[in-house]
Specification:
The chain is mostly helical. It has one domain. It contains 14 helices and two strands. It has a two-stranded antiparallel ribbon. Strand 1 and strand 2 form a beta hairpin.
Length: 331
């Protein structure tokens, strides 16, 4: 065999095999998702269009929250204020849009998104300036943002603009394709793909992998962390807006989105040590967790056991991930 043929064979192997190796975890999640969908159909034969549409709407807020968490975890941090940011931006948007025109509603959405970036930047700046661990700073700020949400509206209320409701509710072309899923994929792709492939994305992964090595390579650690939190604030705000869009009101009390976003990040293959993973895995993980909850409802299982099941799954994932890391370290 000639050298050219060997080189061509190797290049084809790299093209086909390398992406599979890099995305083994996500592919395994997709396989698990397919199995769960088949199982769901078996235990609930009536599960069909309505179930798929409902699934698309129900996962939207948590999917954006998981992406928000994934961004900061990749950078080596964590954000425990995501649920509070969602609540604050949700009630502000619902309160301002109530009874207003669609044009005013668009302006509100733009303004709230900018507010989310400011909130995220504030979190990141506090982490960098105080040098206090991320988990402590963001936990404290979660109380601040939750309190602000209650000051804006002490009880659920307000209203979403009709165009915002129509944006996520209903099918997109094909009855099996929820608008919510299209909105999620398009927005995440528009924001994340340029980030991940650009200089900022390289800095993000470098800081998460090894801060000292990143610093020696000329990466600004502080600026990268602040920008990571700003991006997290943007996605958390998108989660809050999608919560308003899917429920048509604003809810001032943070739901379990913060901890569930961490769970989705872990299950989605993002390393809690930072520097490894992406945003697609956590999105698939959100769908998997939601289907597990739905299946337990179909089986008339106590909802509390759903939380137990999620905990067991996460422990299993962490143990499995630790074993893989130990084997890699020994090589």
């Amino acid at each position: 065999m000639s050298a050219a043929a060997v080189t061509t064979e190797r290049s084809l192997s790299d093209v086909l095999v390398s992406p599979i190796r890099r995305n083994t975890w996500v592919l395994a999640l997709l396989g698990l998702l397919a199995v769960l969908l088949v199982f769901t159909k078996l235990i609930q034969p009536s599960y069909g269009l309505a179930g798929v549409q409902g699934l698309g709407i129900s996962i939207l807020p948590l999917a954006f929250a998981a992406v928000a968490q994934a961004v900061v975890v990749i950078a080596g941090g964590v954000d425990l204020s995501i649920g509070s940011v969602m609540a604050l931006t949700s009630v502000i948007a619902a309160s301002l849009m109530e009874g207003q025109s669609d044009a005013f509603g668009v302006a509100v959405v733009v303004g709230v998104l900018l507010l989310g970036v400011v909130i995220g930047t504030t979190n990141g700046a506090l982490v960098v300036i105080t040098r206090v661990p991320d988990i402590v700073v963001t936990l404290a700020m979660s109380f601040v943002w939750a309190g602000c949400a209650l000051l804006v509206r002490s009880a659920p209320g307000g209203a979403a603009s009709p165009w915002l409701l129509n944006l996520v509710i209903g099918p997109f072309g094909n009855p099996w394709i929820p608008k919510a899923a299209i909105v999620l994929v398009v927005i995440v792709a528009i924001i994340w793909i340029p980030v991940a492939r650009g200089r900022f994305g390289l800095s993000l992964y470098a800081v998460g992998s090894n801060q000292l090595a990143a610093f020696r390579s000329g990466v600004s650690i502080g600026r990268t962390k602040v920008l990571a939190y700003a991006l997290t604030g943007l996605f958390a705000t998108l989660a809050g807006l999608s919560l308003t869009a899917s429920t048509s009101i604003g809810t001032p009390v943070p739901g379990p989105y913060t901890l569930e976003s961490v769970a989705a990040v872990v299950l989605g293959g993002v390393s809690l040590a930072g520097g490894r993973g992406g945003v697609f895995g956590p999105i698939v993980a959100v769908v998997v967790l939601q289907i597990i909850q739905n299946d337990m409802t179909f089986l008339n299982v106590d909802p509390n056991y759903a939380l137990v099941a999620q905990g067991v799954i996460l422990i299993g994932v962490l143990v499995f991930g630790s074993v893989i890391e130990i084997r890699r370290a020994r090589r």
